[in-house]
Amino acid sequence: MTLYDIIADLRREHADETASKTLDLVMIELGHTRDNLREALQNLDRAAIPPGGEQVLKELEDRAHRHRLDNLNYPLVKARGFRPPLEPVDEGSMGIALLLGLSSLVLLVLAGAAIVAGLNTIYHWF
Questions:
Q1: Model's pTM, two decimal places?
Q2: What secondary structure does DSSP assign to 50-96, as a single string?
Q3: How far is CA 113 from each of CA 109, 122, 126, rounded to the nearest angstrom?
Q4: Per-residue pLDDT for 90 more than 80?
């Protein structure tokens, strides 16, 4: 069971607008806190919670605590940029790359010639 399973169960059990809006606010805060429910509930704007939403929050907190999902701490994911290849490029790979590049260039020139020939039949440039 995950934290999001608990939220889905609460949405099914409390199928009213109050619970839906309250759980939507919690989901937004979970995105900011990397799924840490305790931090999300602390950062939650209590004024935005509709009347009756506090009961849903309490039930969510109790269930998450029961399943030990209330204080998850996921590390920040850092996206890595381009990294050079670990192995040097050998002569065989370089030859294949040159042949693929040359064939792509030939196809590009042929496509351009076909476009010019087609437009020439319409506009009679030559």
A1: 0.59
A2: PTTHHHHHHHHHHHHHHTT-TT--PPPPPPP-----SS---HHHHHH
A3: 6, 15, 13
A4: yes
